[in-house]
Design goal:
Structural class: mainly beta
Largest sheet: 4 strands, antiparallel
Number of strands: 35
Distance between the termini: 83 Å
Strand order of the largest sheet: 1-28-27-26
Radius of gyration: 24 Å
Length: 398
């Protein structure tokens, strides 16, 4: 009898609007034929998932349901999927690159000139396609994958895991040599590892003008000067391995061996967002519409509304804001530094290639100047070093 009374009371409460509090959580939507989801690609309302053994799956409802789209895709272990406009690419294990121009309905192998066909990552930058191969470096195609050529000089890393475009430059994260940058669309590369204490880099993302790199053992690093310098940005995230990133406006998500983590303060602090997840290792992330999708290593796809993450926003109020303003910017030469709330000990200025072009020691004055008039027009980065912190500001020299 007690059970009947409880049911009646519960029904009355719900009908009256007093529904019990159901905690926000992840929902497993599965649906990809194999439990391992290595990558996502989003094109407007379409989401593609690259799986570890079942090929490519398509969702047209932001990840709620999935359909296999594998006609012509003979190699079903897909490391990476990438899409732009009508172009859909799949990088496969020992099958090279496959191309679809009809949302995955049909696939064609596109491997002419591709000397290594174990493709870990694919990136579309403008009219060029870049393919990172496992053990063979980066290849480039300028004809939608019709032919491939090895990327230019300077890229010594043989194991590129991720590619990203930021500030007009292309970046390659390698698992054996750190991060490389190209400012001429892949023709030439230069290593850019200053401050990076672990050169085993497996994920990159550009967010709000800054770069984030995930390493195998040291955690996540941030660069605020287009890869010239890197700083550890790992509070709350260590010691878990990060495999992928996703961004929604100012929110940054990390896929780790311990689930999904969120930073709402540009990587300064991280918090776990794993309620409802029954798996720990997350391999991929994507934002589709109002949802965040997570690809796991053993339970397929998980989904959660982005609106639910706001209740767990993390802010660090233990450290004051460091105010460093520079003016005028753009400038023709003289830069004035003002509103300094921390003691700046050293200032260095680098060009877009990461080369130091000027250095000065601050005498302790709150306001001071430095001169760029003798340098050619272009983009420069001023790096302000103070006790326990570093601040970087971009300068446009006219």
């Amino acid at each position: 009898m007690k059970h009947h009374y409880f049911f009646i009371a519960f029904t009355v409460l719900v009908a009256a609007g007093f529904a019990p509090d159901v905690k926000s959580q992840w929902i497993n939507v599965g649906g990809t034929g194999t439990p391992t989801v290595n990558s996502f690609a989003v094109n407007e309302t379409d989401v593609f998932a690259g799986t570890g053994g079942s090929g490519v799956y398509l969702s047209t409802d932001h990840g709620a349901t999935w359909t296999a789209v594998n006609n012509g895709l003979t190699k079903k272990y897909v490391w990476s999927v990438q899409t732009s406009g009508s172009i859909l690419l799949a990088g496969t294990e020992y099958g090279g690159i496959y191309l679809s121009t009809n949302a995955g309905s049909n696939w064609t192998g596109m491997n002419t000139g591709l000397k290594n066909i174990d493709v870990k990552t694919v990136s579309i930058v403008g009219s060029n396609i870049f393919a990172g191969t496992y053990g063979g470096g980066v290849f480039i195609s300028s004809d939608n994958g019709g032919s491939w050529a090895k990327a230019g000089a300077g890229l010594n890393g043989s194991y590129p895991y991720a590619l990203a475009s930021s500030g007009g430059s292309l970046f390659a994260a390698t698992y054996d040599s750190g991060v490389f940058v190209s400012s001429d669309n892949g023709a030439n590369w230069k290593v850019t590892n200053s401050g990076l204490t672990d050169i085993h880099v497996q994920a990159l993302i550009s967010n709000n003008g800054d770069l984030f790199a995930a390493t195998a053992s040291a955690g996540v690093f941030i660069s605020t000067d287009n890869g010239v310098h890197w700083t550890l940005s790992n509070n709350g995230l260590a010691p878990f391995i990060t495999d992928a990133f996703a961004a929604s406006s100012s929110d940054l998500f990390a896929a780790t061996t311990n689930g999904v983590y969120l930073s709402t303060d540009h990587g300064a602090n991280w918090a776990a967002e794993n309620t409802g997840l029954t798996t720990s290792a997350i391999y991929s992330l994507a934002v589709s519409g109002e949802y965040l999708l997570a690809g796991s290593n053993n339970t397929g796809v998980w989904r959660r509304p982005l609106s639910e993450f706001a209740v767990n926003a993390v802010k660090d109020i233990s450290q004051p804001e460091i105010a460093v303003s520079i003016s005028p910017n753009p400038t023709t030469g003289i830069i004035t530094v003002r509103d300094v709330t921390s003691d700046i000990q050293h200032v260095s200025v680098t060009n877009i290639l990461g080369e130091t072009v000027s250095e000065l020691a601050n005498s302790g004055a709150a306001d001071f100047t430095f001169d760029l008039s003798k340098f050619p027009a272009g983009i420069y980065f001023a790096r302000f070093e103070m006790a326990g912190s570093i601040v970087t500001r971009k300068i446009i020299k006219e």
